[in-house]
Amino acid sequence: MTDQDVVALVREGLWVAIIAGGPLMVAALAVGLIVSLFQALTQINEASLVFVPKVIAVGAVAALSAPFIGGTIGAFAERLFDRIVAVGGGGF
């Protein structure tokens, strides 16, 4: 396995992490922005008002996107394990 192969695997792993975590981060960002706007408009400054909606939104998005995230990570793991077998020879 060459240096380019290792760099390609690391790059692919980082890309999979971005794809898998992206929906959750976007949901937290959107809810945080909406709650912050609501707090600015109503002048309610309560710290827990931001936390609870974010937890609910991230949980809902995680539940809805779990098949996509699991499939993405599973496909990457399968490619990675196939690569390990190819490098190691696949036998004793």
Fill in the keyword field for this structure:
single chain; 92 residues; mainly alpha; 2 helices; elongated
Summarize the structure in words.
With 92 residues, the protein is mostly helical. The chain has one domain. It is 88% helix and 0% strand. Helix 1 runs antiparallel to helix 2 (48-88). It is elongated, with a radius of gyration of 20 Å. It starts with a helix and ends with a helix.
Query: Which word captures the global form?
Result: elongated
Structural domain tally: 1
Tell me the fraction of residues in β-strands, as a range. Answer: under 5%
Instruction: Spell out the helices and strands N to C.
Output: HH
Main sheet summary:
none
Give a topology summary.
Elements: H1 3-42, H2 48-88
Helix pairs in contact: 1-2
Task: Summarize it.
The protein has two helices and no strands.
